Amino acid sequence: MLTRRDFIRYIAIGAASTAIPAALSRAQQGYVKPVEKGPRWVFLVDTQKCVGCGLCVKACKLENEVPYEANVSRTWVERYVITKDGRVHADSPKAGRDGYSGNVIQLGHGKTEVINPADIAKAFFVPKLCNQCDNPPCVQVCPVGATYQTKDGVVLIDRKWCIGCGYCIMACPYGVRFFHPIVHTAEKCNFCYHRITKGMKPACELACPFGARRIGNIMDKSDPVTKTIIEGRVSVLRAEYGTKPQNYYIGLSEEVR
Amino acid sequence: MKTHVFRPLFVVLIIVGLILLVRAFVVPEQFGAHERGYMYGWHNKADEDRWKDFKIKHKGSEYCKDCHGDKYDSIKRSPHRNIQCENCHGPAIDHPEDPPKLKIDRTRELCLRCHAYLDYPTSNRRLIKGLAEPDRHNPGIECAICHNPHDPKLGR
Prior knowledge:
The structure holds 2 protein chains of 2 kinds.
Chain A: H1 4-31, E1 41-46, H2 55-63, E2 76-83, E3 88-91, E4 104-108, E5 111-114, E6 120-128, H3 137-140, E7 147-149, E8 155-157, H4 167-171, E9 178-179, E10 186-187, H5 193-196, H6 203-207, E11 213-217, H7 224-231, E12 247-250
Parallel strand pairs in A: 1-12
Antiparallel strand pairs in A: 1-11, 2-3, 2-6, 4-5, 7-8, 9-10
Chain B: H1 3-26, E1 31-33, H2 37-41, E2 42-44, H3 46-52, H4 61-65, H5 69-76, H6 85-89, H7 108-115
């Protein structure tokens, strides 16, 4: 004989045993974001260590099949010379590919400016590359879904799908993107995705003799790069754009844009 | 209801059907919103593998060590120990099969990338040893004529 008490108990057990697995599977389907272990690639640039040799740019162009003589590059090194009168002289001839070996500033269109060493207040080099933003504006504007962010944070471009409209090139506040002169699609730094996914360093980091450029995994708390970003004094470029850039710079000066 | 009301509706439905049919053939199977959602992750998943399969060209100095151990050891003992073989010798790619011989960059310009003296107060360039003023220190000749890049100090 089924008592009323047992009847209610069976109903409760039955309801719970169907509802709990259903709720769990719902959570796995993305209702609640699953906690996934995996890398989130970030970059740490120590501008104090950079001497402007440009070996990173050379290695990047050769590694990623960016035409060597074309005036485009996935990464580049900028030079900032601030004279005692407060003026900022900045250049990056050929993306800094051949390094910096003189006091002549390239103003573009063949114009140059010679700086007298006695007038220099401070001068330094800043390597630049794609920030792999957490809110990448270049991805948002793509009308066809040719550029996207992987789950490890790298923004890639689908060369088969890109129609070459150039919206992404306009949208990037850092001027990272350009047209690939041979492939005829948008092109940008992807932290050497083919290398980092196999546990290798990006070509620019490998080539840098001074340790100015380092890739890191922000999800790995024991990663020395992660430690520096969390505990050290670092800053990002153009934080006011809300793009949440993931390249962290040591020793960034306010003249750097 | 009269048929002239339904007729444009059928036309629209046929157009939508045709678009969906064409889309089914043109759009790759793995196209969709992936881990980063619709806003940042709308893409063809197969393209990630295409990028992962991109050819690696720079193998790093450890790749050279097995065959060129003497050269590897000599540069590791010198102040140039942090410089990768491939910075001067060019990317190994599939050496020794392809290319069988690497083209060495012996130019003066290569050395001057680091060793040209620049009076930049806030740059580490000033701390590099063996800085030279390019116009005064034996202009026009290759540095490697006197300095061995694997052991650059003279008089040893």
